[in-house]
Amino acid sequence: MFEAFSNLFKIPDLKKKILFTLGLIAVYRIGAFIPTPGIDGAKLAQFFANMARTQGGTLFGLMNMFSGGAMQRLTIFALGIMPYISSSIILQLLTTVIPALERTARQGDEGRKKITQYTRYGTIFLALIQSFFIALWLENPARFQGMQIVQFPGWGFRILTMITLTTGTAFIMWLGEQIQEKGIGNGISIIITAGIISRFPSAIFQLFSLIAPGTAGESQIDPFKAVFLGFMFIAVIVAVVLITQGQRKIPVQYAKRVVGRKIYGGQSTFIPLRVNQGGVIPIIFAQSILMFPATIAGLVPNRHIQGLASALMMGRPLYYVLYSLLILFFCYFYAAISFNPVDMANNMKRFGGFVPGIRPGKQTAEYLDFVMTRITLPGAVFLTVIAILPSVISSQMGIPFLVASFFGGTGLLIIVGVMLDTMRQIESHMLMRHYEGFMKKGRVKGRLS
Question: Staple 87 to which of 62, 123, 399, 435, CB 3.0 to 4.6 Å?
Answer without folding.
Answer: 123
